[in-house]
Design goal:
Blueprint lengths: L1 H28 L1 H7 L2 H22 L2 H9 L5 H28 L1 H7 L7 H26 L3 H25 L3 H23 L10 H11 L2 H22 L2 H34 L3 H37 L12 H17 L1 H6 L5 H23 L1 H26 L6 H20 L4 H15 L7 H15 L4
Helix pairs in contact: 1-8, 1-12, 1-13, 3-5, 3-7, 3-9, 3-11, 3-12, 4-5, 4-10, 5-7, 6-7, 7-8, 7-9, 8-9, 11-12, 11-16, 11-17, 12-13, 12-14, 13-14, 13-18, 13-19, 14-17, 16-17, 18-19
């Protein structure tokens, strides 16, 4: 049964990841376009508005998106699920529209507050249109996730992506709109696919809003808002500190390094799409606890390996993907950022027990402590060390959040996590990365160290007997044709 559950999660994550993979690959491949047609300050403006949109999405949703997944699985009855869908849809529509109106009116003060420069009000307005499109689009595509229809979700993602890339290239290259072209191009695809999904889902989106259900969902989701804001602070506040102390140009350089490290975010995004619906759909508590324990081990194995690869190969990846030498500095933050994302993956797994037990009231304490640590470290480190200081702050904060949530979640919903194996996979990857970076190893040695990671874990006792048997069997099958 465990193997079947892991296989189900893996298959769904892989399908979700297909759209994300193409999205990230194109995003990385667009770096030469951005660095050729945008100056560092333009790129910094785009990243700053992306950060603003992320925090406003959290505030405007009021936790309903998280509650949607939990309450959808409360009952298998169609009537109940339709009420959850409609209540969530109409709340999101109203909240997003209010946000758009406020942003449109206050565009110039927002531009001034974010230090975007003179005459950037229309750039802000374009970002708020994107905010409206993003909130409503994600609410509709979440239906594919709870219905466990990852193929349709991926199809919508790819359609969105193709339109977005085409529009962005036309606006930036042909019309020379620079930052405005990137922002507008990013929401043209989202808005187009959203309108198609409205027609596809028209029979489920009737004029129904259950106030009692909304209050229940709000009680579940509202305590998650400060927690999500803290997560936003962890993800994006570093840009504001770098912009304040070092300028928008260094924000652009830092963002290039983060973009390369976001290969780990690709897998994390795929897993995150599949994880809530999968985790809540397991009805038997013993089966859920055992499954959660193995998921944490396997996820951290994959992410630690990927962080090792990205960390060791960062200098060559950044040089390959950027057209200007000024952006090569971004390679320095890749290892720390990749391991920070590994810790975030662990946090996502262990926090599911809190949602399953419906005891979300204190999540904000854990994420709040991590956010305060991040802000404090940014204030101390960024003025002296710039983007490296920001990367150190992020890695320390995400790691503390994972540890604190593990302790808290175990009190609420105990799970038999395999902590010895977790320590082995993470510690070995960090050690190999530190070794390679300290010696400034050439490309060939960096590739060798990354490839050797699974083999190094073998004498360290990471693999269980059943896992070793499967690995040996797989090895025999691979070697058989060569005989």
């Amino acid at each position: 049964m465990l193997a079947q559950q892991i296989k189900r999660l893996l298959s769904q994550s892989l399908i979700y990841g297909l759209g994300g993979l193409i999205s990230r690959v194109l995003s990385v491949l667009l770096l030469p376009l951005y660095t050729s047609y945008l100056h560092g300050r333009d790129y910094g403006r785009v990243e700053t508005l992306t950060a603003l949109s992320a925090v406003l999405v959290v505030v405007l949703r009021l936790g309903i998106s998280s509650a949607f997944f939990r309450y959808y699985f409360d009952s298998p009855e169609l009537e109940h699920r339709v009420r959850v869908v409609r209540t969530s849809f109409w709340f999101t529509m109203g909240s997003a529209t209010l946000g758009l109106a406020a942003g449109w009116i206050a565009a110039q003060p927002i531009a001034d507050a974010l230090s975007l420069g003179h005459g950037q009000a229309w750039l802000v307005r374009a970002a708020f249109v994107g905010l409206w499109a993003q909130m409503n689009y994600e609410q509709l595509t979440s239906l594919f996730r709870v219905e466990e229809r990852p193929i349709l979700f991926t199809f919508a993602t790819l359609a969105n992506l193709l339109v977005t890339v085409g529009a962005t290239v036309v606006l930036v290259v042909h019309f020379h709109e620079r930052a405005l072209g990137v922002v507008v191009g990013n929401w043209i695809g989202t808005l187009s696919v959203y309108l198609v999904l409205l027609g596809y889902r028209r029979y489920q989106l009737g004029l129904q809003f259950d106030r009692r259900l909304f209050r229940e969902m709000n009680r579940f989701g509202l305590p998650l808002v400060p927690s999500q804001l803290a997560l936003w602070a962890l993800a994006f506040s570093d840009r504001f500190f770098i912009a304040k102390f070092k300028g928008q140009t260094e924000v652009g350089h830092y963002s290039v390094g983060v973009r390369v490290a976001s290969a780990a975010l690709l897998l994390l995004a795929a897993f995150r799409l599949a994880w809530p619906a999968f985790a809540y759909s397991i009805e038997d508590e013993d089966e859920a606890e055992r499954t959660y324990g193995f998921v944490l081990t396997y996820l951290l194995f994959v992410f630690s390996w990927l962080a090792l690869i990205l960390g060791l190969l960062a200098p060559w990846l950044v040089r390959l993907l950027t057209g200007r030498a000024e952006f090569h500095e971004g390679a320095r933050v890749v290892p720390l950022t990749a391991f920070a994302l590994t810790a975030l993956g662990g946090y996502i797994v262990v926090s599911i027990g809190i949602g399953r037990a419906r005891k979300t009231q204190f999540n904000w304490v854990v994420t709040g402590i991590a956010a305060l640590l991040d802000i404090a470290l940014n204030l101390v480190l960024v003025p002296s060390f710039g983007m490296i200081g920001a990367a150190i702050a992020g890695a320390a904060a995400y790691s503390s959040m994972f540890v604190l949530m593990s302790v808290h979640a175990q009190r609420v919903y105990p799970v038999p996590y395999q902590w010895r194996r977790v320590a082995l996979v993470v510690g070995t990857a960090i050690g190999l990365t530190a070794f390679g970076k300290a010696l400034h190893v050439p490309l060939s040695i960096a590739v060798l160290l990354a490839a050797a990671y699974p083999l190094i874990l073998l004498p360290l006792g990471f693999y269980l007997p059943a896992e070793r048997r499967r690995l040996l069997a797989a090895g025999r099958r691979l070697l058989a044709p060569a005989r």
